[in-house]
Task: structure prediction
Amino acid sequence: VIATDLAAWTQAAGGGYLVVLADHDTKDWQRPGAKAIAAAATPAAGQGAVVLMHDGGGDRSQTVAALSTLLPELARRRMRVTTVSDGLGLTAAASAEASRAVRVRGEALRWAQLVSGWLAGAMTVVLGLAVGLAVLRLVVQVITARIHVRRARRNRRRLTHLGPVTVILPAFNEAANIAAAVQSVVASDYPHVEVIVVDDGSTDDTARIVRRLGLRNVRVLRQANAGKAAALNTGIAQARTSLVVLVDGDTVLDRTAVGRILQPFIEPDIGAVSGNAKVANRRGLLGRWQHLEYVMGFNLDRRMFEVGECMPTVPGAIGAFRREALIDIGGVPTATLAEDTDLTMALARAGWRIVYEETAIAWTEAPSTL
Result:
């Protein structure tokens, strides 16, 4: 006997209940067949027994069929079939009415079991739908990614100079990263690149660090802290070129990134181009997870979105824009929690095409610790 079972029986006995155990468990719930159930329920010759059968919990047709065999056989042996309470002369005690409190607890237990069953069934359906949608999404991603790759290979051309470009870096307390970010832009192989660093009310040495670099074609603008969107609008207003590239202050660009992200603007209906942001620090677990997210979000999702002409976001880490398109929609939205997504959707609503350039690579830092 398992100790926990014995403890439960002892507790029940202490509450005035008589504990009765079965001699024969027919295991009819397994539905082994009417003959097997009847055989398991038949006591040895000349002996009585307490037999356990089930009247609920599923298909009980085999149990009913077994009784059609068992009862005549027991009658032939001159054995009487009765209930436990009748056999022990405890009919009155067994049929005693339960108190109101007991009935309430019983109803509560019954409804808890019913509701939990419904919830378990609903969760099974929801989980099945979620898995099905995830698999469908992955299939669509793979198919559209192949289409995008074929298109990119077919349309690949020699890099074309599209005139001067302004790279705008909004920065708030980016003293640790701003020098590397600015130097990577200046080192670009694309000619005629102007850099505007907008210091959005930093309390560290962000602005002074950029000035101390002494780089040509790099301007530093300072403003009271107003948020990233306002800093971007300040830079856009000061830009003197028809094309602008918006880059986060903690992002380092590949040498070819600026030239490559501008190439789609050869087509006049393109208003924005999404670059390809990659995680630079992949050694830790968080970095690897972030890297996987970026691979899915950039290499697969954005290919799918371009093929479907429904690009939802040009990332803040690296994105190029036609200045005319930005002015057309009134600049970067400031009343938002995600300015890059709202900006992209505003451009799409205004009728501008938005595409993805996977060869325009920017490197960003992921959190290395919790």
About this structure: The first strand starts at residue 24 and ends at 25. The chain has a mean pLDDT of 90. The beta strands are 24-25, 51-52, 165-171, 193-200, 218-223, 243-247, 251-253, 270-279, 318-322, 353-364.
